[in-house]
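Hi P.,

Sorry for the delay on this. The queue was packed all week, but I finally got your sequence through. Input first:
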Amino acid sequence: MLASPDAGVSFEAVSTGYDGATVLRDLTWSIPRGALVGLVGPSGAGKTTLVRTLTGAATLHAGRVQVLGQDVGRRGSPHVGLVPQLGGVDWDFPIQVRHAVLLGIAASSARVPWFSRAERRRADELLERLGLAGTGDRHIRELSGGQRQRMFLARAMLRRCEVLLLDEPTSGVDLATRHDILHLIAELWHDGMTVLITTHDLNWVAAQLPRIALLDGTIVADGPPHEVLTEELVERTYGARMRIIRDGDQVVVTDEHPVLGPRRADQVAEPGGVA
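Then the structure:
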């Protein structure tokens, strides 16, 4: 069965993983073109594996994966751009910011590893657009966490991708950087790009994104946050009961029984003492 022509990304009865080990099983799911979706789930649920299936870094054991109606092969999809987890990057690798951005078109450029003057100019224009003007000749380790995220956004945009994948983009960055990243994502989304964000932060996606999917080896639920984030579905996904607080369509997820409650008076230490 072919994916709907309106599907940006589609998975049909997909099982995928690494070296014979299956991480995602019997996953059937689609993301419409132009959608902005947050993918959440516990550690080991398969969020990064799903992303790597679209880039060709995970092995497809069964089923069919398509991007914009075209099958995704072993080298991934040319329509996909990836902003990876910052923790998985070797920041001491000897490469400058501009060249790291240019690697986004390494598969299609006729001038690798030198790249053409036009390609270099385009990379610098994107760095400037993303607030990184003047950083092209700097080593990548000199960038802050937020600047590193912008560098990878520039690399994805240089590919002229139509589907943007962001793997844990808010991990390890401060609140101001989160805010900046969200504004950049919103700008790209409003320009018509399909955006998929993986994250551990349930409350961030509930507050900021129009659609989320719960993943635990396969898709548990998918839809607007106020419909997906229920006690039953969250417990099925995370294996733990959570308390859901609602204010209209706004949702906040908290631990049902906090481990650390308020301290009793007899537990409070005197100044300079030990409780």
